[in-house]
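Anyone? Bumping this.
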Amino acid sequence: MHLPDYKEARKRDIRPYHRVEFQFDDKVKNKYQGKTFYLKTYGCQMNEHDSENIEALLEFLGFAKVDDYTAADLVLLNTCSIRENAHNKAFGMLGRLKHLKQEKKDLIVGLCGCMAQEASVVDTILQDYRWVNFVFGTHNMYQLPEIIDKAIEENKQQIEVFSREGDLVEGVPVRRVNDYKAYVNIIYGCNKFCTYCIVPYTRGRERSRLKEDVLKEVQELVRDGYKEVTLLGQNVNAYGKDIYDDYTMANLLEDVAKMGIPRIRFTTSHPWDFTDEMIDVIAKYDNIMPSVHLPVQSGSSRILKLMGRRYTKESYLELFHKIKNKVPRVSISTDIIVGFPGETEEDFLETLDLVRECQYDNAFTFIFSKREGTPACRLADPVPLKEKEERLQRLNEVVNHYFLENNKRLVGCELEVLVEGISDKKHMYYGYSDTNKLINFSSEKELKPGDILMVKIVDAKTWSLDGEMVE
Ligand code: 5AD
Ligand code: SF4
């Protein structure tokens, strides 16, 4: 049994890079044929992509997927720690599963993902959730077959959570959700240690995959006819820094672009590591989508300092405008936290000012959530929740205003759209533009997910646009 430990997780010394190839254990292959699994994923795209690996590993064991948890033999929760409500959702689901397990004694329940890396969560599971069969951490995902097999064979709770990142495992099987768009991890973990954020503790320090491994994966996606690839990492801009002297995110983006996949996206970018070379590459290649997620978190330099964000309002704006000026038609989205400990009304007004200046195309807005073990958790936080909720509402009114204004400017334009699905209404489809806008559109022609076509925009809403296929 390995338990999580934040003191260990916090250590920043560089570990030797150790790449290992995933080994299939043939002893457990198809051992659970005839059994079913239900996998619930919380949180970000990293977790969604991890779940694609988890599904493939469960299928290797012989489990078949079902969409109703009450019908499954095994239920696994891939959890998120980023804010308290993600926690609450997972514990709420555990409550429902406890009831189910009273009726269905053989039900196997497991928890993995970021919450598994939290010592307090694992303590709770050990004390109050003895009936949970297994827990494994983000660094132990590739051990899933042996952990599940052991939990079932020994009928004893299994907890496997390394506190610090281990080997970089390549060749873990993947069951991709789509056959036209795919996630590709390029870097794991985060070294930024923003003071509010739990990710550096749950996901470990930055570890880049070898460029050869990334490019090989993209090459296979091109071969298999994929149309869009999203390069993933907690901070993709730091790609390569831990393993190369002279190969950066800009070089990787360029190499991926040259492979000719029609659409390339990347997320998330910390403003600190966004280089001029990266901006030039994004501007140069038509298949790198003109869409950048650039979390600002706050418009007050005082709060940014307390957050440990390593930039000021002024330096952020300089970068923002550089990207806008150099990348034609670029859309920029952001993340904003209100109610960080000690945020005053003046600080908040600075955030509103910054939003008015940036006029974001999309923004994810949050109330600060205390995460145990992070430095911000210990700061005095005198602003009442009600006031923070009001700030969030005021912020949302301003961001929503600009979403609509930006969208209205697109009426009459033609945008390139990748079809994602068919709406309930006849001849209606939806998809995302190169600038990452949701477009609902009509087409007399029969279309399928993965098709790329031009759509003329006829109407604008706050979160979507309406259009018609261009003949
Ligand atoms: N409270 C509120 N929001 C947070 N985020 C990260 N940690 C917290 C927290 N403790 C937000 C940040 C980040 C996004 C993924 O989640 O805005 O960019
Ligand atoms: Fe968290 Fe900051 Fe790293 Fe983003 S950059 S994952 S907010 S520590």
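Late reply, but here is one note on the structure posted above: The chain has three domains: 6-160, 168-407, 414-469.
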